[in-house]
Design brief:
It contains no helices and 13 strands. By secondary structure, it is mainly beta. The chain has a domain of 90 residues: Jelly Rolls (Sandwich), CATH 2.60.120.10. The structure holds zinc ion. The site of zinc ion has 3 residues, from loops.
């Protein structure tokens, strides 16, 4: 099983490198409720010390499917397909997904997905508390003074 490692860390950041997309299958995750090892899945929110989002990467082998539907209590999910293709079902909607697909699901949405193709399906999922983004505009970002370390190399 592949282990996550911190690449760089400071009071204002944490950085990791998951490796290539082809190596994502080497991670695994022990599902705390189902007591079952899930291969090809890695959560990175904790190692990044994220206070606002949980992020996971998943690789689904060809012709596999989630064996259940799930919902969330508080978190909205955004799935981003980064490689491969398959299908999503949310409530009574069934649709195809492929590289570049981005799917937002409200907490109460009953969701499942499958890889009905001959190639691996790779996606990431970002979880945030529904309604937590109460403001977003260009005013949230601002210019900052800092010494440019590239110029010292
Ligand atoms: Zn979920």
């Amino acid at each position: 099983m592949k282990e996550l490692k911190i690449n760089s860390e400071g009071i204002n950041h944490s950085a990791i490198n998951l490796g290539s997309l082809d190596e994502l299958k080497d991670y695994s995750y022990m599902h705390p409720k189902r007591k079952q090892e899930v291969k090809g899945k890695v959560f990175i929110g904790e190692i990044l010390k994220s206070s606002s989002a949980e992020i996971s990467f998943t690789v689904f082998p060809p012709h596999t499917e989630m064996p259940f539907f799930h919902q969330h209590k508080n978190n909205e999910e955004i799935y981003v397909v980064i490689k491969g293709s398959g299908q999503f079902q949310i409530d009574d909607s069934l649709f195809d997904i492929s590289e570049g697909s981005v799917i937002r699901v409200s907490p109460e949405g009953k969701r499942t997905y499958r890889n009905n193709s001959d190639s691996p399906l790779t996606f990431l999922c970002i979880q945030n508390k529904m309604g937590s983004l109460d403001q977003f505009n260009v005013e949230d970002g601002c210019l900052a003074e800092c010494e440019n370390l590239w110029e010292k190399e």
